[in-house]
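ok so for the tutorial part 2 we go from a plain amino acid sequence to predicted structure tokens. step 1 is just haveing the sequence, like this:
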Amino acid sequence: MFDNFGVRIGTPDDVHPMMDLAMQACDENGFVDPNPQKLLGEIWPALNLDRGLVGIIQDEGGGLEGAILLRIGTMWYSDAEVLEEKAIFIHPDYRSAKGGRARRLCEFSKKTADELGIPLIIGVLSNHRTEAKVRLYERQFGKPSGAFFLYNAKTGAYPAAAE
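step 2 — the prediction. this is what the tokens look like for a chain of 163 residues:
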């Protein structure tokens, strides 16, 4: 079904490394305290192909280099299904390595939306290297359809991350 771009579809066996990666993503990009149970509530169904999936890039030793969490849902004003990117994260050890991992995960998300025949909603919510991330997304998806703003908050600055 998928031309994976070097990305494999996650399985339930990936739950622990995915949770570790998700907590790293929260440390870097979160702006409120993460709830591991809520994270698991999004990750576990996707690893079981229940209204979503996880795209994973894995190193030769089995460690996760990066992942994207995609869930099928609806917008608050419609019953029409959309593919929602919940998180895309590249482990810091692999960000400067050759291979374009973020680009590959973006391509994987577009291919998934195409295969499912539903729109993809994906975005950047970060105060860290935001301009570079937006440029990558513009190359992959075209011009943005809006912007996010945070008031009284900054990504990577929830109370536990600041300790």
